[in-house]
Design goal:
The protein is mostly beta strands. It contains 2 helices and 23 strands. The strands form 6 sheets. A 5-stranded antiparallel β-sheet has the order 1-6-5-3-2, with no helix packed on it.
Length: about 325
Amino acid sequence: MKKGTYYLTVLLALVSLCSCAQTDKPITHDPVVAKQGDTYYLFCTGPGITSFTSKDLKSWKQGDPVFSESPKWAKEVAPGFNGHIWAPDITHHNGTYYLYYSISAFGKNTSAIGLVTNKTLNPKDPNYQWEDQGIVIQSVPNRDMWNAIDPNLNFDENGTPWMSFGSFWSGLKMVKLNPDLKTMAQPEEWYPIASRERSPEIPDVDAGDAALEGPFIFKKGAYYYLFLSWDYCCRGENSTYKLVVGRSKSVTGPYLDQEGKPLNEGGGSLVIEGNKNWYGVGHNSVFTFEGKDYNFMHGYDAHDKGLPKLIVKEITWVDGWPTLKPME
């Protein structure tokens, strides 16, 4: 299946899901989750940022998208933008929910990370209103060898905010933010956190073959764990996604895998990969709910036209490293 045809299939599937339907494996890409009260709220790639709710992390009901209309600045960043917003990230901080998201064009770094905020995730609350805060970070072809997508917000031990992000090109980056969580600190402070070898003959404007993306950092004990996805998403039966990890005692790295190889030099310890039932699995997030650590990701279902489905797995920590049961 061609990539354009596959994306159209996924988009139609997302739109066709009935808002009243309950399902244990919703069509989902790049999921993140927050809990408010007794309800889990899931946000993922889709028209206007797709959302789902659940009471038990098993049965999910589709909700309204975050954006009823696209951000006004989106077409200025990506002229071909069609309302399909990528890879959100959710954080609750000082009474406000911060939902970062990506505006981009496939295979190009005409991209920007935006921010939308809300006081509550409950649509029935009178204070429920998503307010767009505009662009946080933007990448420009021929200027930047990185891609401003796949955001993830973290705080270090001093409460300083850092944003990790990126895909392909020269790898994944981290930049220091101001306390407002919507602007970069000055002077700018950047760190490379993960990369893979890129063929030198590939033009800078092309994504290239250093296939990595989707950073997500999770603090556990003395370590920050950097999860990221290797290889290729979004290709249906030809998807080769897999999840790898490294760790560091500093949020800015360097992150090392279990063999001691830096992630910024191609390192990464395998966490999970696809099999005959799932063509590829990846683009994860990690959260602690009710004292348990969960990994949320999507996989391409071999028994349903390669459509991306939500996968939720509890993490077991073995000798200081995260482990997941293999795909069934």
